[in-house]
């Protein structure tokens, strides 16, 4: 998304702090989310992501700092904030005894859409989220991916301008994950602002306009996906050869960052894309060498954390994920 | 709309949600009806002959004596259902959703209370029907029946709010189903099943002063025409106190607890 002159912050946070007992979970967070963009908060379990979302969604009081959400002060105008936001947490916030339609209907009533308006909105969302077949089924009978879709549909009933998605794809199968990504992109196309948390660099890269990396309650890096990825050296190919001669021939024509003669492997920087792979293999063909084995290593959360904190992604206590 | 209109409409929505729960999950209601019916039959047919003789009548006299106590036992047992369904909400993500919406905060709880009142009245109705079938012969006038309904409603209201609070403070659904159990014991430790003057002195003092005894005495007086005396005032006062304290407790813990 390009930022226009009219862009206002959907979320602005300054000096946000939160402690649970003696444990500091958020330690002076500053961030700004521009309206109509996707902002990803990237970090391992226990980094404070869920705490952050719970504070921004008015579910948890901060210990310090100032926060404005959708143009309203989080503390003084909590109800105005609530009217503007939608929250989809890690655990499906659905009523499992009710059917899909009844769940959506409940949200329509709580948003006071009226009988006809509510029905239209519910029908629209059932179509849009491909839930027509299961609309009359109790949610408890649906798969995890379907429940997550119902959950998000419920969040959208009130047409919020700002949506918090707390680890929207954790625990989903690959197909449901891609489906969720498609939905997020559609939302943004409609002008909705999305604040999402994730443990997956790939997800942040796919969806976000800006990424902030959260570690031990501090933001250790922030920028566009490209800016961040440029600072991560992690992406590479590992090529294994049958014998040392082939390894040396290959090493003479490739841009090798690491060579291990005893394991017969070479490490070559790469973005992992098909074009890049083809180029490497073509170069090897030119010198008549074929690797025995090839693995693609794309940068992941560990690489991000290694790049920005000098250590691996530390998993804190699981307490905050509740 | 005004704040009051919002509160009413949100509470109405939450009430409809609870009515759907009653329809979707009838086994809970059946369980809440089954237990008092079993106790009624057990006490009338197993203990009734002996206890009735002790009361100076027979089994028939004991049905009359027992039924008001069983009705209260029904209410006290049924609020376990309230605690369970509140705890189910609290342990699932749905409460976070409600709390992050611009709706009347307490409407979720009000919905639970209203839904439970419906459930309790269904249970009381069935239990009363069984009592009538096995020989309960009340002498109440229509006005007295109305008063009986009123006393039961006041009691159910008070105990439901108490159960809502217990459901919120419970850390699991299992805990929530156990904590209200002491309420089911109270009719035994009062005048529900036997007259308190047959009890040993320490227990008798407790039985005479605990809140359920005046409620049972009021029901018994209204249903059987034995006179209500001051127990009606005492019963309603207890209900008002329990309702008030429980409401404040429930609302406060709801706001705090959900903020974990």
From TrEMBL, chain A:
Molecular function via GO: ATP binding; ATP hydrolysis activity
Domain ABC transporter: 11-241
Subcellular locations according to the entry: Cell membrane
Membrane topology, from the record: Peripheral membrane protein
Keywords: Antibiotic resistance, ATP-binding, Cell membrane, Membrane, Nucleotide-binding, Translocase, Transport
Biological process (GO), any one: response to antibiotic
One Pfam family matching this protein: ABC_tran
The protein's name in its UniProt record: ABC-2 type transport system ATP-binding protein
UniProt organism field: Actinoplanes philippinensis
From TrEMBL, chain B:
Chief site of localization: membrane
Signal peptide from the UniProt entry: none
Stored Pfam families: ABC2_membrane
Listed InterPro entries: ABC2_TM, ABC2_TM_bact-type, ABC_2_transport, Nod_factor_ABC_transporter
Gene Ontology CC entries for this record: ATP-binding cassette (ABC) transporter complex
Protein location: Cell membrane; Membrane
Keyword Cell membrane found: yes
GO biological process, one term: response to antibiotic
Segments traversing the membrane: 25-48, 68-88, 109-134, 146-169, 176-194, 232-250
Membrane topology reported for the UniProt record: Multi-pass membrane protein
Keywords from the UniProt entry: Antibiotic resistance, Cell membrane, Membrane, Transmembrane, Transmembrane helix, Transport
GO molecular function, one term: ABC-type transporter activity
Domain ABC transmembrane type-2: 27-257
Similarity field: Belongs to the ABC-2 integral membrane protein family.
Name listed for the protein in its UniProt record: Transport permease protein
Organism: Actinoplanes philippinensis
């Amino acid at each position: 998304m390009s930022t226009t002159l009219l862009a206002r912050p959907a979320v602005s946070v300054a000096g946000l702090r939160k402690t649970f007992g003696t444990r500091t979970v958020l330690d002076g967070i500053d961030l700004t989310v521009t309206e109509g963009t996707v902002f990803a908060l990237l970090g391992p379990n226990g980094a404070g992501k869920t705490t952050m979302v719970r504070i921004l969604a008015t579910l948890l009081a901060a210990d310090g700092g100032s926060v404005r959400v959708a143009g309203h002060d989080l503390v003084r105008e909590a109800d105005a904030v609530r009217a503007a936001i939608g929250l989809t947490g890690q655990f499906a916030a659905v009523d499992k005894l009710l059917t899909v339609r009844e769940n959506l209907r409940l949200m329509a009533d709580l948003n006071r859409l009226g009988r006809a308006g509510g029905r239209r909105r519910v029908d629209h969302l059932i179509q849009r989220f491909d839930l027509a077949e299961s609309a009359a089924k109790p949610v408890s009978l649906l798969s995890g991916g379907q429940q997550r879709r119902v959950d998000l549909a419920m969040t959208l009933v009130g047409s919020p301008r700002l949506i918090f998605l707390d680890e929207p794809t954790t625990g989903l199968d690959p197909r449901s994950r891609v489906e969720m990504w498609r939905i997020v992109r559609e939302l943004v196309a409609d002008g909705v602002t999305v604040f999402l948390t994730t443990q997956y660099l790939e997800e942040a890269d796919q969806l976000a306009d800006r990424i902030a990396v959260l570690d031990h309650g501090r933001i250790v890096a922030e920028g566009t996906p490209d800016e961040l990825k440029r600072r991560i050296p992690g992406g590479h190919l590992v090529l294994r050869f049958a014998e040392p001669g082939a390894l040396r021939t290959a090493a003479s024509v490739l841009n090798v960052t690491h060579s291990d003669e005893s394991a017969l492997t070479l490490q070559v920087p790469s973005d992992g894309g098909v074009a890049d792979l083809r180029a490497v293999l073509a170069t090897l063909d030119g010198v008549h060498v074929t690797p025995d084995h090839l693995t693609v290593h794309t940068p992941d959360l560990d690489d991000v954390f290694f790049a920005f904190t000098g250590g691996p992604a530390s998993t804190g206590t699981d307490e905050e994920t509740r | 709309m005004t704040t009051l209109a919002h509160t009413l409409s949100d509470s109405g929505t939450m009430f409809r949600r609870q009515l759907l729960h009653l329809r979707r999950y009838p086994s809970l209601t059946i369980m809440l009806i089954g237990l008092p019916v079993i106790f009624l039959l057990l006490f009338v047919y197993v203990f009734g002959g002996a206890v009735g003789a002790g009361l100076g009548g027979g089994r028939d006299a004991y049905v009359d004596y027992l039924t008001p106590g069983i009705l209260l036992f029904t209410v006290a047992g049924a609020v376990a259902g309230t605690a369970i369904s509140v705890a189910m909400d609290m342990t699932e993500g749905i409460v976070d959703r409600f709390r992050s919406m611009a709706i009347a905060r307490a409407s979720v709880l009000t919905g639970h209370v209203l839904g439970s009142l419906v459930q309790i009245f269904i249970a009381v109705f069935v239990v009363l029907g069984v009592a009538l079938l096995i020989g309960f012969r009340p002498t109440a006038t229509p006005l007295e029946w109305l008063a009986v309904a009123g006393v039961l409603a006041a009691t159910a209201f008070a105990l439901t709010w108490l159960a809502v609070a217990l459901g919120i403070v419970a850390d699991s659904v299992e805990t929530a189903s156990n904590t209200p159990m002491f309420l089911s014991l109270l009719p035994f430790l009062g005048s529900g099943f036997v007259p308190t003057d047959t009890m040993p002195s320490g227990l008798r003092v407790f039985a005479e002063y605990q809140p359920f005894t005046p409620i049972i005495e009021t029901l018994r007086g209204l249903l059987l025409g034995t006179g209500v005396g001051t127990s009606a005032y005492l019963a309603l006062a207890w209900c008002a106190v329990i309702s008030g304290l429980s409401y404040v407790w429930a609302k406060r813990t709801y706001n705090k607890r959900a903020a974990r």
